[in-house]
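Severity: low
Component: inverse-folding endpoint
Summary: output formatting inconsistent between runs
Steps to reproduce: submit the following structure tokens with default settings.
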């Protein structure tokens, strides 16, 4: 893997020592969204799956635990460029069908026509070359293969405090290609994508998770562009998030005594079939 193909903010923010927090703080994936991906597949089990940008294994664990998927996997190849994330993945995913290796969106090391499904969870906005990535996805997919992207994100329309939270942390984006900017949608107009894949299909789910003050703070600090801030800037972020939670604009309590409240979220799934 050529290191320059990994965005500098991602490389630093998801480096060694930051990923235990990421794995602890980030949410898992909704069962309905995982079922939806399965329902789009023309192939039947057992399935060969490639997950690119597999991170610490949050999506992988959710998929393997899902009743629609647990017995449907033949082999699962996780590709992740961050050594720190691969280390956490190897410790947290224990399944003989699963392997994890170094690689990038346009250089996976997977054989031609091996995969029934290529899935990218919470990662594709970091892709540096959409056309090369499209060609790589098509190369490793079977003729009837499916490409799926999935993201979780706080729903800023779900409560005032969430919108204020996002505005506070996003000012530190440092030019990173954050999911919310939609830059990743450029893939669908690239020559390789239009030649090799059918038009994408999208679906969004809105829901509320349970949250606590500690979880909101941890989740904010798990963002790559927050993780690399100087300590005094991190402290300012924490102070301001605490003030946002104190104002509690639109906050809905689930158990006020225990400090548990609704945490509005959305999940977006984009699925495309190889032509």
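Observed output (run 2 of 3):
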């Amino acid at each position: 893997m050529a290191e320059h193909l990994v965005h500098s903010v991602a490389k630093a923010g998801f480096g060694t020592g930051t990923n235990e927090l990421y794995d602890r703080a980030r949410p898992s994936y909704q069962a309905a969204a995982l079922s939806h991906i399965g329902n789009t597949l023309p192939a039947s089990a057992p399935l060969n799956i490639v997950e690119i940008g597999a991170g610490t294994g949050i999506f992988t664990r959710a998929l393997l635990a899902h009743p629609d998927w647990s017995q449907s996997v033949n082999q699962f190849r996780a590709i992740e460029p961050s050594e720190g994330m691969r280390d956490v993945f190897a410790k947290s995913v224990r399944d003989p069908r699963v392997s994890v290796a170094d690689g990038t969106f346009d250089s996976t090391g997977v054989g031609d026509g091996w995969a029934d499904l290529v899935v990218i969870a919470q990662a594709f906005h970091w892709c540096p070359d959409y056309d090369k990535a499209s060609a790589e996805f098509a190369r490793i997919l079977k003729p009837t293969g499916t490409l799926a992207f999935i993201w979780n994100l706080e729903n800023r329309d779900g409560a005032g405090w969430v919108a204020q939270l996002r505005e506070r942390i996003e000012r530190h984006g440092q030019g990173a290609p954050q999911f919310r900017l939609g830059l990743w949608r450029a893939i669908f107009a690239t020559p390789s994508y239009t030649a090799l894949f059918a038009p994408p299909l999208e679906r969004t789910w809105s829901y509320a998770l349970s949250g606590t003050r500690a979880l909101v703070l941890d989740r904010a600090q798990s963002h790559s562009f927050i993780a690399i801030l100087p300590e005094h800037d991190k402290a300012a972020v924490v102070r301001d998030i605490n003030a946002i939670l104190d104002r509690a604009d639109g906050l809905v309590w689930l158990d006020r005594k225990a400090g548990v409240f609704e945490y509005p979220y959305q999940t977006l799934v984009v699925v495309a079939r190889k032509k």
